[in-house]
Task: inverse folding
């Protein structure tokens, strides 16, 4: 089977979609082999997204934790998160394939905004599926998507969050497979998506590796990133996979603990959701469980298959941060560094508390995947 | 056994019923009513939390059945009684995750023990050879779906690993009723029939007696799900409603003048 990461990944999809996945796989392989494609991607990264993003030495945060903390500033990207890297890459691919109707799912709304943005930029029709629960808690991003000309389609089914928005996007794709490009927002889904999304997000890792060596003189002891579907994490991990001395740590949402969380790797078992086999939060009948995280982008019961492989093969480890610890991280980064992180990214910051107790004095790169403007009302509790 | 039941039926209609809606006692009564109404075989749908190939009606049916407390073990406990009483083939339709959760082979074996004759999995992995072999080892038919988008080469590969009947997906899209069926359907079915000995049955989108009549003109059987479950969910007596709805489909549209 194509797109396997050890026992994980693959293509578990309705037969109707299979030719579309094959077309996509072929288009991806062709594009990835062309220097011109990557030149164009890089040009958008520099002149539209604003890359390279800085690597900020967080001196006051370092003093607070007793660790040497460096922040990879994906929050400074155009549209406010790493999601735009993938959206640009995939819209270039969609254009090559001649697709003019774009659909996407979104949780926090960051991927929805990124997709609506690239559709505006390329003059393409855009429909974004979003759970009604997420629409309520990420209002600002809903309005941004509408301003960008996208239709935001509310999804009420199931738990009305990211997983249901993803299912609904897949249903749309099945029905409109000839005309439509499904611009998935994380390193999840059937092959070729997990590989494709990793390659577009790998720009984070390439830059971070070069920057940390230039600025600090050596590789870090650890790289830390939050894991929802796993795209920002796999993006930054990818450059360090072959550096065995660099510890890779993904941070999952532990929510309120007690069964109410989004920690698929920590608490899940292998299962199939949205076309891929990976760790999944499910009951003993294989029904997918409800999840909870204060961060809408981490509120997903599955995880990208490559993370399952990295966990099973112990190349990476996956830690837990609760809603409250993430909020503490959010406040701390505001106070000590003048940066408001997205609540998703605040999980990676929150993990420093545990990490610094274990590994006092170590040098770490934390992927600050997005900025927190969208989350202010959640934090303030209006 | 499945193939024979379809071939021997003058108007093979195969109803789909979500298990456990509103409870498994009712499912048992619905199955009997469908058999009495002339079903050629019956698909028992295992509810799933994330039914990505289903439209609103079957999503709702799945959701309600799970809310009502559907459990796999309860279903396994009933299958034997049902298949002993109902002398047409029972087929299970399920997304792959509930089947794999406790080991695919063991789950298939439990279905077989319950008298189930075939299994339909809408999200099989692209390479399903191993699962086909598992089904063969257990002695259960793996009924494969062929979509309107499936290319000839892939179709032949699917047909080589298919048992019971071939499930021709009528529409590009999820399950659910459609006012009309696509034009290329007859050609699609003809191509399948030219490439297999198995009966070819059409499903997805069928909702009216007139569509069933039209489809039985060129296909060996017709699968009806959303239309039936819609009736079941609306009714105060689900079994009676299911029987009534199916009888209309099996008997066909009366010719004008004949009543
Ligand atoms: C800022 C930010 N970080 C992280 C995530 C989680 O996604 P992933 O794990 O794919 O990076 C999201 C998702 O919406 C996000 O908006």
Result:
């Amino acid at each position: 089977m194509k797109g396997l990461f050890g026992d994980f990944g693959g293509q578990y999809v309705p037969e109707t979609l299979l030719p579309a996945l094959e077309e996509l796989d072929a288009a991806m392989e062709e594009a990835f082999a062309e220097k011109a494609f990557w030149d164009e991607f890089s040009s958008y990264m520099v002149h539209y997204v604003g890359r390279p993003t800085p690597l900020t030495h967080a001196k006051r945060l370092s003093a607070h934790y007793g660790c040497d903390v460096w922040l990879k500033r994906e929050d400074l990207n155009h549209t406010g998160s790493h999601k735009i890297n993938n959206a640009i890459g995939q819209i270039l691919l969609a254009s090559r394939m001649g697709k003019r109707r774009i659909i996407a799912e979104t949780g926090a709304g960051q991927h929805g905004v990124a997709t609506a943005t690239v559709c505006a930029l390329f003059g393409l029709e855009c429909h974004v599926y979003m759970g009604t629960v997420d629409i309520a808690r990420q209002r600002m991003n809903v309005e941004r998507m509408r301003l960008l000309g996208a239709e935001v389609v509310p999804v009420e089914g199931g738990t009305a969050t990211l997983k249901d928005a993803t299912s609904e996007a897949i249903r749309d794709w099945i029905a409109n497979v000839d005309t439509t490009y499904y611009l998935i927002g994380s390193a999840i889904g059937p092959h070729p998506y997990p590989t494709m999304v990793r390659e577009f997000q790998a720009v984070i890792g390439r830059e971070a590796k070069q920057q940390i060596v230039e600025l600090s003189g050596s590789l870090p002891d650890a790289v830390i990133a939050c894991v929802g579907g796993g795209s920002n994490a796999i993006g930054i991990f990818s450059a360090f996979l072959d550096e065995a001395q660099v510890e890779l740590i993904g941070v999952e949402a532990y929510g309120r603990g007690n069964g109410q969380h989004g920690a698929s790797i920590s608490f899940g078992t292998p299962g199939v959701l949205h076309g891929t086999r990976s760790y999944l939060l499910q009951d003993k009948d294989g029904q997918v469980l409800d999840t909870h995280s204060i961060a809408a982008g981490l509120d997903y019961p599955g995880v990208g298959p490559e993370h399952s492989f990295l966990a099973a093969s112990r190349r990476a480890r996956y830690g837990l941060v609760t809603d409250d610890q993430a909020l503490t991280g959010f406040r701390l980064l505001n106070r000590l560094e003048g940066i408001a992180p997205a609540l998703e990214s605040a999980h990676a910051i929150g993990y420093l508390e545990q990490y610094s107790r274990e590994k006092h004095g170590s040098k770490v790169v934390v992927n600050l995947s997005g900025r927190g403007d969208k989350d202010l009302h959640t934090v303030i509790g209006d | 056994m499945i193939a024979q039941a379809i071939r021997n039926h003058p108007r093979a209609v195969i109803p789909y019923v979500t298990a456990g809606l509103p409870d498994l006692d009712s499912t048992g009564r619905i199955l009997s009513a469908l058999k009495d109404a002339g079903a050629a075989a019956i698909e028992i749908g295992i509810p799933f939390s994330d039914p990505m190939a289903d439209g609103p009606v079957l999503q709702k049916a799945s959701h309600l059945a799970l809310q009502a407390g559907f459990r796999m073990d309860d279903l396994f406990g009933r299958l034997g009684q049902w298949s002993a009483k109902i002398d047409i083939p029972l087929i299970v339709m399920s997304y792959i995750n509930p089947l794999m959760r406790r080991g695919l082979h063991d789950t298939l074996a439990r279905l077989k023990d319950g008298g189930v004759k075939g299994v339909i999995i809408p999200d099989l992995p692209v390479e399903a050879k191993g699962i086909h072999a598992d089904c063969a080892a257990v002695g259960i038919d793996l009924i494969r779906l062929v979509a309107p988008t499936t290319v000839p080469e892939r179709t032949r590969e699917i047909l080589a690993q298919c048992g019971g009947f071939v499930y021709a997906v009528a529409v590009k899209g999820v399950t659910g009723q459609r006012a009309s069926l696509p034009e290329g359907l007859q050609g699609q079915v003809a191509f399948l029939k030219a490439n297999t000995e198995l009966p070819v049955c059409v499903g997805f989108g069928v909702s009216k007696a007139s569509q069933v009549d039209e489809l039985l003109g060129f296909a060996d059987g017709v699968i009806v799900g959303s239309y039936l479950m819609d009736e079941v969910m609306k009714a105060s007596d689900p079994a009676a409603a299911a029987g009534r709805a199916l009888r209309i489909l099996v008997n066909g549209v009366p010719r004008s003048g004949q009543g």
